[in-house]
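Operator note (shift B, R.M.): manual run for Histidinol-phosphate aminotransferase requested after the automated queue skipped it. Running by hand, logging everything below so the morning shift can see what happened. Input copied straight from the record, untouched. If output looks odd, do not overwrite the archive copy; leave it for review.
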Amino acid sequence: MSESLWRSSVKDLDPYIPGQAAEEAKKQAELTDVIRLATNENQLGPSPKAIEAMVKAIQEAHFYPDLTCLELRTKLGALHGIDPENYVIANGADNIINLVIASYINPGDEVVYCTPTFSEYHKNTLLMGGVPVEIPTTKDHKFDLEAMLEAINEKTKLVIVCNPNNPTGTIVEEEELREFFKRVPKHVVAVLDEAYGEFINRENYATGVEYIKEGLPVITIRTFSKLYGLAGMRVGYAMARPELIQPLQRVREPFACNRVAHAGALGALEDVEHKNKTLSDNKREMEKLVKEFRAFGYEVEESHTNFLFVDMKQETGSIGAELASQGLIIRPCAAWGHPTHARISIGTAEQNDKLLKALQEINAKAPHHA
Ligand SMILES: Cc1ncc(COP(=O)(O)O)c(C=O)c1O
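Run finished. Output pasted below as returned.
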């Protein structure tokens, strides 16, 4: 009965399906120790500098946070060489995606992106009464920029490129991306989601920072959830030329980045050592997993993130359930239309070894058809 009162666009939304939370898995399997490789978190945890800053900030929890996050914008400005007024900071990159779409989409406007990708583009487009235009990724699981350009018409308002893409971990060629941004017509706003941008494993590969400096009209999205290990605190940001960023500043709820999260992000930026260790551990462990997965007969896409998109050559729902019963959580990809794929976050050496051992046992029981 009450559903009839909902705004009509809300009725079209599917609830977000998260990776299984560690708490839930523990309860289900009556386990005390759960290894969660389903949500692309940083298993090293937050930087000690971030923790120290957050503990300090919590003493001032009775004060509202700084409305515009001036200190963080200034620090990001110095990091990227893009002026502090060209940022919006909010409650995670999820919130930024929501702000971008709420800022630009009128009912009936089209939003073009590829699938499989991050589900929030679809949800927020529907919420605003917009029309998602979903283009399949290429055979090698990359964003199909040419097909996206072809899909643009007079109703198109936004194009979103998730690079590196979630869940496939792939990147597009740099020159193709630059050309794409140059060719997007003036009535369309380009968005580049770089939640995993810092993990790109190719030297001198240009990111949104360079495109903005080159004067290209692109809104770039980043997060502190992945590289900086602050997924639980919720800090994400957008950067772009002033005229593109201004509507987000108007739509944003006033205190979208809380005092403790703001302090944590500042502390995290101080700790270059922690950042570098995250990147080098990730690279080493990823190489190990790729090698072992290929030895199992799985197909693995080259990844530029902190996770792998793995074709296990058999339905991954049951493997996921079997692993979960042992306290290992991965992300089967049937919901993305890839029933034999799983998205597996890179864990610590010890966690990955446990995963490999468990998979070896599962494979020995029921060998797959490679
Ligand atoms: C591509 C992509 N964009 C945005 C987000 C949201 O990140 P946040 O934790 O900052 O909300 C994620 C999270 O997994 C993601 O994969």
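Quick read of the result: The chain has a mean pLDDT of 94. The two ends are 51 Å apart (CA to CA).
Leaving this for review. - R.M.
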